Amino acid sequence: SITHESSRDEKQTADVLLLCHSVFAESSHLLELLVERFHGKTTIHGSTNNLNDIKDDKLRKNSHWNTQVKVGSMLSSWMKTFWEQDFGSNDQLMEDLDAFFESIETEFKDDKRVQVLLKKMRGIYDMQYNKYNTDKRTVKHKPNIGAQFKPSKFSITEQKAVKLAEQWTLMHFKAFKNITKRECLGQSWKKKDGSAQNILDMIKLFNQTAKWVQILILTQPNLNKRAKVMKLCISIATYMKNFRNFSGSCAFHSALTSTPIHRLKIAWSKL
Question: Which of 98, 143, 167, 267 has the most CB atoms around it within 10 Å of its CB?
Fold first, then answer.
């Protein structure tokens, strides 16, 4: 068991369980089991050292304390990592968590170690609640300074490749950082339940980037400008690869090797 006092490397195992538990169990069931373990009401199958079997009171308390620390660590990690997905969207789970904290305060009111552990867990609870609770957020509206327009003489072909690569990298990073771990499980982006919206947004940005490159090249008015833009796109893709923006770089490569661009034999010959 992850929360057994004799377990080792429980942190990595707990992280995997918290990430994947929704595949085989409800969050409420996981919390229920953690609560039972914290109160010492469960036994571990195959264990040679269950609480009820320990006759020495001091050893029993220390064993129970070690289990409580592991439960507290796992619950704290759960709140830190998956608050928005599991707790923020489940009022009942938050109520159960509140009830758990109250039961600790009552049952272990004379145990200073447990009270310190409770204080830490409540601190994480309050921090995450304030962070994600939209009702408590103060939305600051930026002053309306009018629409921002592209300069009248702006030309994409006159811009430096490194600057354009930086802007594309910022755009792709913004989409990439929104992806959560659970969206990557079970090919959830292929499902229609909206459980991997951030991955879908990343895919959409990839396709838009590739389309933009194709349109930019094909809409050039003459052969020389088309060759110049193709050279620019190759440079942008190279810079993005150096910036470790592999998504953007691959999108540019996909566009440059697509049939409408690949067939421009004369333009390619001018590079």
Answer: 267
